[in-house]
Amino acid sequence: MGGAGREGLGGGGQAHVYLLLEWAPGGTLLDLMRRRGGARLDEAEAAARVARPLLSALAHLHAQDLIHRDIKLENVLLGPDGSARLADFGLSIDSSSELPNTRLGTCGYFAPEVLDCPRKRTPFELKARGEDGTPPGYSSAVDVWSAGVVLFEILTGRAPFAAPSAQAVVEAIRQRPIAYPPHLSPEAVSFLSALLQRDPATRATAAQLLGHPWMLQQGSGDGAPPAAGASSSCGGSSSSSCGSISGSSSSCGSSSSSCGSISGSSSSCGSSSMAAAAGQQPAAQDSRVQGGA
Ligand SMILES: Nc1ncnc2c1ncn2[C@@H]1O[C@H](COP(=O)(O)OP(=O)(O)OP(=O)(O)O)[C@@H](O)[C@H]1O
Ligand SMILES: [Mg+2]
């Protein structure tokens, strides 16, 4: 959790916003998966350390009409108690005051309805509601989908929409049946299926998912915070990343993008950090997307 302070409004008219964040010493979820060689988390650990705090954070944000828009392994940090903290609000949007209709985020984590939205030359195009040609907007359900991708990754050790090319990743997101490995419990499959509904109208909300039988079955867990674990690190950046199990760094400056499933640790985002952790070949090319709200 963080606090913000503002100063310097007088004189030169410049504002400086400082965010004080809780220190998350455990690194990112991606780091955790790498440390474990790409091995999956067992269901109890995944529920307690990640699913519950992540969904609590999303339920808290969504109740305020805020959409994060870049949920992925590298934006989920691990706090002192080892449980998840949601970070990196650089692409977040207040949907009560602005229409979210830009195709941005991280490609392997794109919800299907995000794929229907355009990339834009500037953040301000096609924003007015009802404006001629305004593309359909999306909702906080996009975060639930992306959280579903994250949880699938940690529960299975692989990305749900991995494919050999960027275009194939997009096609996989749109229509490839999701293969749930047999080691998953029926409740876990039901849970993941509730997040990974292609129709946002039938996708469960974060608040509903906290009451899903799989969550209840896993109990309260060790070390899971009871409420939203949001560690906000908002750089105000309008750029976004594109890739599923994504890497530790990226070039966020490109205004064009190709979509990849598993992004890498370099600016071309061409390799899978999780695949690398597991000693596999990268699945798709990837690059970062720049976009506004
Ligand atoms: N509260 C925190 N505690 C510990 N580490 C943090 C915290 N906030 C951010 N970090 C570290 O900084 C990294 C980048 O933070 P963040 O995701 O907010 O910015 P970003 O815009 O994605 O930056 P980058 O482009 O470098 O990934 C995180 O992956 C994490 O390693
Ligand atoms: Mg980040």
From TrEMBL:
Protein kinase domain sequence ranges: 1-215
Polar residues composition-biased segments: 282-293
A Pfam family per the record: Pkinase
Keyword Amino-acid biosynthesis on entry: no
Annotated region described as Disordered, given as residue ranges: 237-293
Low complexity compositional bias, start-end: 237-279
Enzyme active site: 70 (proton acceptor)
InterPro entries: Aur-like (IPR030616), Kinase-like_dom_sf (IPR011009), Prot_kinase_dom (IPR000719), Ser/Thr_kinase_AS (IPR008271)
Domain of life assignment: Eukaryota
Keywords, ordered alphabetically: ATP-binding, Kinase, Nucleotide-binding, Serine/threonine-protein kinase, Transferase
Cross-link (Glycyl lysine isopeptide (Lys-Gly) (interchain with G-Cter in SUMO2)): 72
One term of GO molecular function: ATP binding
Binding-site residues, ATP: 22-24, 74-75, 88
Protein name as annotated: Aurora protein
Provenance organism: Raphidocelis subcapitata
Lineage: Eukaryota, Viridiplantae, Chlorophyta, core chlorophytes, Chlorophyceae
